[in-house]
Design brief:
This protein is an alpha/beta fold and 288 residues long. 41% of the residues lie in helices and 18% in strands. Strands 1-2-4-3-5-6-7-8 form an 8-stranded mixed sheet, sandwiched between helices. Strand 5 (88-93), helix 2 and strand 6 form a beta-alpha-beta unit. The longest helix has 23 residues, at 265-287. The protein starts with a strand and ends with a helix.
């Protein structure tokens, strides 16, 4: 995997590159960055080039002076220009949803298909919501290093207990056991996570304007868990209602918000790949 920072006409961006072939651009969720690979699970790296930028405020990408989904979309398009990539399959994950929606709406010529996974698509949390209050305290720029340091320390010492704590934050499923394989997948994810200044922005991020949805014209797949505790499934229904000709797939998977973990993730990943591969087949036929 290549991971580096480059200067674009809209500012600096950290990003990673994996694989070769048709480009897939990932707009990651909260606490993530260009080094996290969980969302790449199941994708053939001999057929696809996976591009994962750190959103502004995450990793080594500076927070923009006037951050907004539109400004971030413009930054990501500037990155594609530097990489000389004309069109991408666009994947918006969790708190990266508003940016993915804006990019697909404002730059339709750059997006062949849109995938929304566990995505925020409307107002997420109110200032009185317990998750909002806790997020502001634990993941402020002054506190997040210590919060993550403690979590990673205890995960190393008591992986089963900490995996269970994370499970309760992400899924509404009760009484589910956690396997060793799931603990290890989570360990790999947690190892790369930090909040920096990005998550505080995510908490107050403004939802997409109504006209954004009406401008999205590319084929769109919306994937969401009915057991998602972090981003309720109402976000998926809202996007499906407002994006013309979009397809919605919901699942009762064990891990809720994290659709890539657990035995029941295989069906979800296959559905995602079926949608992406349709796009590749179309482009191959188009170029003949």
């Amino acid at each position: 995997m290549i991971n580096k920072v480059i200067e674009t006409k809209k500012g600096k961006v950290e990003f990673s590159l994996r694989g070769e072939g048709h480009a897939v651009l990932f707009v990651h969720g909260g606490h993530s960055n260009s080094r996290e690979l969980l969302a790449h699970k199941g994708i053939d790296l001999t057929r696809y080039q996976l591009i994962t930028p750190s959103r502004p405020g995450y990793g080594q990408t500076p927070l923009l002076p006037h951050p907004s989904p539109k400004a971030t979309a413009e930054l990501l398009v500037a990155l594609l220009d530097e990489l000389e990539i004309r069109r991408v399959i666009l994947t918006g994950i969790s708190a990266g949803g508003p940016v993915a929606l804006e990019l697909a709406a404002s730059f339709p010529e750059r997006v062949t298909r849109l995938v929304l996974i566990s995505a925020v698509t409307k107002k997420w949390l109110s200032e009185k919501d317990p998750a909002y209050v806790k997020g502001r305290k634990l993941f402020s720029p002054s506190a997040e290093r210590y919060s993550w340091g403690l979590f990673k320390f205890f995960y190393a010492m008591f992986p089963g207990v900490m995996a269970g704590t994370l499970f309760q934050e992400l899924s509404t499923v009760k009484g589910a056991g956690i396997t060793k394989e799931e603990i290890e997948e989570l360990r790999t994810m947690v190892r790369e996570q930090r909040s920096h200044s990005g998550f505080i922005y995510d908490l107050d991020q403004q939802p997409a304007e109504p006209e954004v949805f009406s401008k999205i014209s590319c084929p769109t797949l919306i994937v969401h868990s009915l057991n998602d505790r972090s981003v309720p499934v109402e976000h998926a229904h809202f996007a499906h209602q407002h994006i013309k000709d979009s397809a919605l797939k919901t699942y009762r998977n064990k891990w809720g918000h994290l659709v890539w973990i657990g035995d029941d993730s295989e069906k979800i990943i296959q559905d995602l790949m079926n949608f992406i591969q349709q796009d590749l087949s179309h482009l191959v036929s188009e170029n003949l």
